[in-house]
Amino acid sequence: MLGIHDLALFIVSGLLLNMMPGPDSLLIMLRSGSQGWRAGSVAALGIGTGTMVHVLAAALGLSALLSASAELFTVIKLIGALYLVYLGISLLRQGASPAASTEPSVTLPALSYGRIYRQGLLTNVLNPKVALFFLAFVPQFIDPAAPQKALAFIVLGCIFNLNGMIWCHLLAFSAAYASRKVRLPARVGLWLNRLMGGLFVGLGLKLATE
């Protein structure tokens, strides 16, 4: 159908690739652990929207332009890196919530679902490596003689995104459940928040220097 082949292999490969840790997974765990599974789910939906942006861009040839222009790739890469560093520094500055002094555990300040959604969207959209990934991975499962290559690309992209949403929501529920069951002392929770912030900063610097 539509020139798509080895669909089962694509689904399995896509699921395994979605399970690889990165900024998206870190953001979901962070929001689920601090505000519950609904916040993690909203972050996942933002990430899924960002994935569809990359899928449509690749299907329309915009990602090919990105891969062909070193200057454009560098600009978008640096913007994405700066955003990850910004998220990390925000976590480092937030530290403990005001309730930390009276409660045995520490949590991050709650964010609106709209802001969490935008965080998920921007974390994904501003990562140019995702665009190049789709250009390199998806065409392997489309027949070169297929009459509707763009449509086949979009269909495979939707399947990949569905796999990703299943994994991201499983991650959100797991992180929220673990957060409810394990109440960390304030000092430990504070250092975990700082560790998460440091990881975001490190991911941003890694993206900028690659």
Concise overview:
The chain is mostly helical. It is 77% helix and 0% strand.
Structure explained in plain terms:
The chain has 210 residues and is mostly helical. The chain contains 9 helices and no strands. The protein starts with 6 loop residues before the first helix and ends with a helix.
Summarize this structure as a short list of keywords or feature phrases.
210 residues, mainly alpha, 9 helices, globular, transmembrane helix, LeuE-type, membrane, transmembrane
Topology readout:
Layout: H1 7-18, H2 23-35, H3 37-60, H4 62-68, H5 70-94, H6 113-125, H7 128-137, H8 149-181, H9 186-209
| Proportion of residues in extended strands | under 5%
- The low-confidence parts are 96-106
* Alpha-carbon distance between the two ends: 38 Å
One letter per element, helices H and strands E, the order comes to HHHHHHHHH
Q: Specify the number of helices.
A: 9
Secondary structural class? mainly alpha
What share of residues is helical? over 70%
Query: Describe the biggest sheet?
Result: none
